[in-house]
Amino acid sequence: MAEVAIAIPTFRRPRSLERLLRALEKLETTATVTVLVADNDAEAHEGLDLCARIAAGYRWTLDAFPAPERGIAQARNALAERALAATGARFIAMLDDDEWPEPGWLDAFLRVQAATGADALHGAVIPEFEAVPRASVAQCDGMASQRGTTGSCAMICSTANVFVSRACFEGLAKPCFDPAFGLSGGEDRDFFTRLLAQGARFAYADDAVVRAYVPASRATLGWALKRAYRVGNSDMRVFLKYRPGAGAMAKEFAKIAGAFAAVPVMSLALAATPPRRAIGLWKGCRAAGKIAALLGSHYNEYAVTDGA
Predict the structure, then answer these.
(1) Domain limits, CATH 3.90.550.10, in the chain
(2) C-beta separation of 194 from 152 below 8 A
(3) CB of 19 within 8 A of CB of 100?
């Protein structure tokens, strides 16, 4: 019987956290499950209060604790340390507090892991909108569904719905998630980049489905372009962290130049195709974020919390 720790960082989203915790009670699985919640809000600690209220009658072992040092990387590190020290879990699944899984989510991960032998797996993420976004931004990052082909893959970059072996966390130098990315994001790409360098194998499990709540404040073109800028900014910071050589830098500069050159062309070509109309702008903003990182500027997207 598999033993799994489900690790959830939370910050000022008690309603979303409760929806997630209630969904976990409905999992259809024979696995032994421990649910870990790291509350990153040292002041209001609404997540801790929620867990204290529901723990007595909860289906799974529910271990909630404070992670007072502000930042998403810091909260993920607290969860990893807790999972390794306080559980015997062979696998650690990570979910965001604005997500919730379908009943077959956990066993889908277990099946694909057994079939592929992968060390880390990513599952599908399907958005659920508070307000339907305009068609022009529906395919932008953060609003489009994340789906893939089940089986081995070259790389995964996000911790929004992942399933990682205990050995991955044990084998990395600590901290597992770089605190420098605490408010900007990018700690997940850096984490998987380090795993790849150590020979980890990756896979995608498209039947391991979670839903992700998208509040009205995020279902806009402005938010989509800010997200593109942030992704470019944090991706470049991860790239620079490992001191790339001249050849790698030249390829990256070529990509940035190509993205800027494509903006007017794509904007005109896709003007009559609403679902893809903003893709050119998205690519341009992502390239702008990369240039900002090259100049030493960091964009801290997670200084602001969307949703409740």
Answers:
(1) 3-218
(2) no
(3) yes
* H-helix or E-strand spanning residue 108: helix 105-116
Percent of the chain, pLDDT > 70? Answer: 94
Closest CA to 230 of 166, 173, 164, 306: 306
* Among candidate residues 206, 202, 94, the one with its CA nearest the CA of residue 155: 202
Cα(256)–Cα(289) distance, rounded to whole angstroms? 10
What is the structure's pLDDT at 136? 72
- H or E segment to which residue 165 belongs: strand 162-165
Cis peptide before 215, with omega less than 30 degrees from 0? no
pLDDT band at 304 (very low <50, low <70, confident <90, very high): low
Whole-angstrom Cα distance, residue 25 to residue 250? 50
Q: Rounded distance, CA 74 to CA 172, Å?
A: 16
Facing residues of 62 across strands?
35
| Residue pLDDT, tens place only, 5-60 | 999 999 999 999 999 999 999 999 999 999 999 999 989 999 999 999 999 999 99
Q: Does residue 302 have a pLDDT over 80?
A: no
Task: Give me 282's structure tokens.
Answer: 């998205």
Name the token pair of 148: 């893939």
- Domain 3-218 coded CATH 3.90.550.10: yes
Locate tokens 């022009």: which residue? 136
